[in-house]
Amino acid sequence: MTKKLIFICLFMNPHIEPICHEFHELYGNAFEVLEYGSFEKKREPLGWTSYQLPYMFHYADHYDDVINADYVIYGGVVDSVIRKRIYLNKITFIMTERPYKIPTTYKNYLRRLIGSELHFGRCQGHRAYVLCLGSYVPEDMLSFGNFKDHMFIWGYFPKFISFSDSELHRNHSKPHLLWAGRMIELKHPEIMLSIKKQLDSQNIPSTVQMIGDGPLLEQLQKQSSIEHLDISFDGAHPFEYVRKNMSMADIFVFSSDRNEGWGVVLNEAMNAGCAPIANRCVGSSQLLIRDGFNGLLCDSQEEMIRTTVELASAPDKYQLYGKNAYVSIRDTWNAHEAVLRFVNTIEHDCSFQYQSGPMSNAELVSKSTSNNCG
């Protein structure tokens, strides 16, 4: 008899649909997705849509199923239903980004200590585990003594797109640099103006493209015009458009700070064969990127500007990084591989079976790196 698995989320979206599809392929009718929220209409211009799948139901109508299922993956704050299940010692995975994106200080320590005890502390001593959506989740959890040796590396797994070797080799006469996302403070889109200015000052020909809108867009357009920077501002587009343009770019600049819990655009850019340059403090960066092999990690904006300019003048290097980035997604960081690893792990009583990648042991990042991202 196939054991039952339930996946609980706010609402179905393109970032989690591929993983749910893979689970359904394996479990069939023994797999359900339960939504506790509703689709956000504001995401429709980005190509998101409301899903109607035969294995999707409302969380509030299936509490008994949640209690009785063999396995549950829960993406949300632990509630009374999940807590009851945990107390029954049933295998439960809490899927979360880092809970403390704002650093813990003397003023907020007591409030966080109480919240940690209410939401996570009572899970101790039971078969409750964390699926970490980012490399800094362990630091936040262990800061209050939660889930020691019960945390697995996980992530978001957007749809994988296959490319041939010829498609991965762009062969542009000048490097094509891409930035994509909401133009808001935590994503630091302003860095692209500094990068373009440096490229021009060093007479390095380049194409610089920015996709997205947001409160900083108008300001960036004005500044770009004042400084006579040739930057293409494409505005907001559906994610299919973004991914198509990624497949034509050479270098992807991922400039978000520690407030970016994961950052799916990095998965998508690497899938497209872009050479990624990323802030080390973003949740996904140190998991997806092996520094100097399939991309580059930076500790500051100044380093990112310098590194991007250097890479833009080295086509052999950014083409190699891009190819290696694609292979990393194809072989490891995709929904199919993640589900196979998850199933293998639960079949081995949730012991650690992998050295790296999805379902490997989520360990603390180095203290020096952690301090830089605090």
| Largest sheet entry | 7 strands, parallel
- Give the termini distance in whole angstroms: 48 Å
Helix content: 25-40%
Which CATH first-tier class of the largest domain would you pick? Answer: Alpha Beta
Q: Helical stretch count?
A: 15
Which labels suit this protein?
single chain, Rossmann fold, 6-stranded parallel beta sheet, 15 helices, 13 strands, 37% helix, globular
Summarize this entry quickly.
By secondary structure, the chain is an alpha/beta fold. Helices cover 37% and strands 15% of the residues.
Record the SSE blueprint.
Blueprint: E1 5-9, H1 17-27, E2 31-35, E3 56-58, H2 63-68, E4 71-74, H3 80-87, E5 92-96, H4 106-119, E6 128-132, H5 137-142, E7 151-153, H6 165-168, E8 176-180, H7 191-201, E9 207-211, H8 217-226, E10 231-233, H9 239-246, E11 251-254, H10 264-271, E12 275-279, H11 285-288, E13 296-298, H12 301-312, H13 315-331, H14 335-347, H15 367-372
Parallel strand pairs: 1-2, 1-4, 2-3, 4-5, 5-6, 6-7, 8-9, 8-11, 9-10, 11-12, 12-13
Helix pairs in contact: 1-14, 7-12
Please characterize this protein's 3D structure.
By secondary structure, this protein is of the alpha/beta class. It has helices at 17-27, 63-68, 80-87, 106-119, 137-142, 165-168, 191-201, 217-226, 239-246, 264-271, 285-288, 301-312, 315-331, 335-347, 367-372; strands at residues 5-9, 31-35, 56-58, 71-74, 92-96, 128-132, 151-153, 176-180, 207-211, 231-233, 251-254, 275-279, 296-298. It has two domains: 5-157 and 334-372, 3-Layer(aba) Sandwich (Rossmann fold); 165-331, Rossmann fold (3-Layer(aba) Sandwich), CATH 3.40.50. The chain is built from 15 helices and 13 strands. Helix 1 packs across helix 14 (335-347) and helix 7 crosses helix 12. The protein is globular, with a radius of gyration of 21 Å. The model has no long low-confidence stretch (mean pLDDT 92).
